[in-house]
Specification:
The chain has about 100 residues and is mainly alpha-helical. The chain contains three helices and two strands.
Length: about 100
């Protein structure tokens, strides 16, 4: 599958393994989910400390990741509520 950027016309190539024979529309949808997922992980790293762990056991890593994602969900809900007109709980700055 080949995707062309609307902004600059750059081409991105995808090699798709499709053993179930999904339609082309489903492949395009799955490929399009890459960017929102990457943005979510970047937000989790910056806002909820997703990448700040030093553990050696799977259970400790799993607990850390679960709590970081829960914290990110909480922050997203609070941000959504603050945009709806309720009081702002924190301020964020972008660089």
């Amino acid at each position: 599958m080949i995707r062309r950027s609307i902004n600059d016309g750059e081409l991105a190539y995808y090699h798709c393994h499709n053993p179930r024979g999904e339609g082309f529309g489903e492949l395009v949808r799955a490929a399009g989910m890459r960017w929102p997922i990457e943005e979510s992980f970047e937000a989790a790293k910056g806002e909820a400390g997703l990448d700040n762990y030093q553990v050696r056991l799977y259970h400790a890593w799993y607990r850390h990741i679960t709590l970081a994602m829960l914290a990110l969900a909480f922050l997203a809900v609070m941000r959504h509520k603050s945009k709806k007109g309720t009081r702002r709980l924190w301020t964020t700055t972008t660089t």
